[in-house]
Write a structure and sequence with these properties.
By secondary structure, the protein is an all-alpha fold. About 70% of the residues lie in helices and about 0% in strands. The termini are close together.
């Protein structure tokens, strides 16, 4: 068993990387659907932002390996190790998005190349979130090896990611039409569903034990974290909705959606810390 604070690097990773990935998908969809060349160029420039968010998360997770040399051993288990699959999918996603962003600075970057590249990057992003959500299917850790773990991670990604993408779209001055409302609605739905799954996970801990203790004692503040998650998430979604008001200036929209994204990331991070505090092996 380990303290969740010994696993802060993984909490940062599973907060930032999925959110940054979903935010990239939001920008990519906006880029694929827009017919405004100037808007497309602005989106291409700002793809650096969700890429950076995901990259910071990945770097944080790399510190958990102890030494850089250990990273080489991770790839030896691709196909049979959930951790190896997670790392490979992260590297593939970051490589595709990073190279796209650099190529987008070329004066001639035709849509015939850009759009398939974006679609492939989105597929890699979905693979990254999926592999990350499945990385905790470890037989010897019964508190993690449940359907709650992948569900929680996906709902976390869909809570913070759309609003983070909304912030970047505001910064790019992209006309949102009904897209902004759809992004906020997705976050609200993820908040509601994610809070329910978190509560169910907490309730299930009383029935999980090893030779030393019951799992519920590992995270005594789990209930408080879930309540904070719900409250901060609700305020964040409200701020995101306010950023869509027609009377809101571009600067006000950026400030409101920025505050919303920060609140949602904090809401996710708090529950991820509690998740890592629940590390408990079958025997001792």
């Amino acid at each position: 068993m380990t303290s969740g604070f010994d696993e802060l690097s993984l909490a940062v990773f599973t907060t930032l990387a999925p959110a940054g990935t979903v935010a990239f998908v939001v920008l990519a969809l906006a880029r694929l659907l827009t017919r405004d060349h100037d808007a497309a160029v602005r989106i291409d420039r700002l793809i650096a932002l969700p890429f950076s968010v995901a990259l910071v998360g990945f770097i944080a997770s790399a510190t958990h390996l102890g030494t850089p040399a250990n990273a080489l051993h991770v790839f030896s288990g691709v196909g049979r190790s959930p951790l190896s699959n997670e790392v490979l999918s992260a590297v593939a996603f970051l490589l595709l998005v990073g190279s796209y962003w650099m190529m987008a600075f070329k004066q001639r970057f035709p849509d015939a190349v850009a759009k398939p590249w974006l679609v492939l990057s989105c597929v890699a992003g979905v693979a990254l979130v999926t592999c990350t959500s499945l990385a905790y299917a470890v037989d010897t850790v019964p508190t993690w090896d449940t359907w709650y773990a992948p569900a929680n991670l996906w709902f976390s990604a869909l809570l913070a990611g759309p609003v983070l993408g909304l912030l970047f779209l505001h910064m790019a001055r992209v006309p949102l039409r009904g897209g902004g409302a759809a992004l906020v609605a997705a976050s609200v739905a993820a908040l509601a569903a994610g809070t329910v799954v978190l509560a169910l996970h907490q309730q299930s801990l009383g029935g999980v034990a090893n030779n030393e203790l019951v799992a519920s004692v590992l995270a005594p503040n789990y209930g408080g974290a879930i309540a904070f998650h719900a409250l901060a998430g609700a305020i964040g979604c409200a701020c995101a909705a306010l950023s869509l008001r027609r009377r809101a200036s571009d600067q006000t929209a950026v400030i409101l959606s920025g505050a919303a994204a920060l609140l949602l990331l904090v809401a996710v991070f708090v529950t991820r810390v509690e998740f890592y505090q629940l590390h408990m092996t079958v025997g001792f």
